[in-house]
Give the backbone structure.
Amino acid sequence: REVAILGWRCGAVAVALLASVAVAGAAEERVVTVADHDWPPFMFGGKPGQPKGLVKELLELCLPAAGYRPDFRDLPIRRAFAYLQEGRLDVNVMSVSVERQAYALYGSVPLFTSSYRPVVRASSQVEVRSAPDLDPLRLGHLAGLAYSPEFLAYVEGRLEAGTAVTATSQEALLRMLLAGRLDVFVIPRESLVWRARAMGVAARVRVL
C-alpha cells in the first residue's frame, strides 16, 4: 500500500497551525511543539550522533519561514497521536486517514510517500500477496503504526485472538523476527531498510 504522509509547503504551515496556536497573545513568541519520531531516514528522535532526518530538516526551514519556532520533542508514535488530539502537540508527521481529519489539519502537499511491505527472514520461503496469506504466520505489529482500514481490522482481529504480537520499536520487531518469535510483520519499507542496515542485519531479512 502506498501511503501519502502529512506534509506542508512553507507557505501552508501557518494555515495548518493557526487553529492550535491562535490562543497565544500577539506579544508572545510563537512556539509550536513538533513530534520528532524515531523514524529513519525521515526523523531520528533527536538522538545524539544521529542525523536530523529529511523531514526534520524540511520543518526547520518551513516553520521559521511561516513565523513559528519549532520545539521538537521525541515522542513514540502512539503518544504523539494522543497528544495531538488532546492539544498538547501542535505538529505531527503522519499518514492521511479520514478518522484523523476529525482532529488534524493536513497540509496540501505530501512530504514523501512510503510503501508498506511485509518483512520476513531472508531464509524464509514465505510469499505474501494478501492478508489471508498471513493467517498461518506469527504476525508482528508496531504500536501506533497506521495501516489501511482493511488491514488494520485484520491486525486488530489477530491481536484479539492472541495470534499477533505488538512491539514498541522497529528494533524489537527485527530482533523477534530473527530470533524466530515472529514470521512476518508489515512496515514502511524505507524505514525498515535503514534500520536493518544500522543494526547490521540487512542480509538476514527480506522485504517482500
